[in-house]
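Researcher: Before we compare anything, I want clean individual predictions. No alignment, no superposition, just each chain on its own. First chain goes here; please echo the sequence and then give the structure tokens.
Model: Echoing the first chain and its structure:
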Amino acid sequence: MTIRRIQNVYVVARDMERMTGFYQQALGAGLKFRDQDNWAQLSIGGGNFALASPAEAGAGDKGATVTFEADDPEAIASSVESLGGRVLGRRDMGGHGRTITCADPEGNVFQLFSRG
């Protein structure tokens, strides 16, 4: 028995309209489909990323941290801040790359990663 791939990563969103727009504009996510205010399925870099309403999320769900690989994370970080998100920190890992930790408008944490 093996894991084949990550099928999806989601975070809980209380304001589906705002959060869908945030990820589309800040990270360039494409909208695959949306089930009203229950679920938004997005595509980023060939992978799936979704937003779930509290009713659609798993019981006791507290959120997830998603790391997005980016060519120009500083430009994306600027976009994040201009759209109501926050930059929480930066980490340089030398030859391994660097990360910028951000939060979306509802406080869900994600990271932007660039290779060294």
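Researcher: Okay. Second chain, same rules.
Model: Second chain and its structure:
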Amino acid sequence: MTDVAELTEVELTIVTIQFDAADNKALLAVLSKYIVLTRMVDGCRNVDLCSSVTHPGRHLLIQKWESPEFQQRHFDSALMVEMAESCAGILSGPPEVGLWDGTSAHDLR
């Protein structure tokens, strides 16, 4: 019999990308397209977009990937390159990228 913990164990690679917009409307258009297409990529568990209440024009993408390999493959993809190139001239500075492990309460025992 398989242990329930084994069945629910999920390894996630999480990426955050923070953008500060010089042209908020244009950035949201770019990110909206990117999110829809990224959600269809193999290994993508989810992509969320959060917009700051305290810093207008600041947006955060939160991506969850099944493994580091899927995440890296996506970062090397034409879709990622297209999104980055589409951000030219609409950001107030370079985006800030973070790479995270998906620690759960289960891991803290």
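Researcher: What stands out in the second chain?
Model: The chain has a mean pLDDT of 90. Additionally, Helices lie at 4-8, 24-38, 68-75, 78-86.
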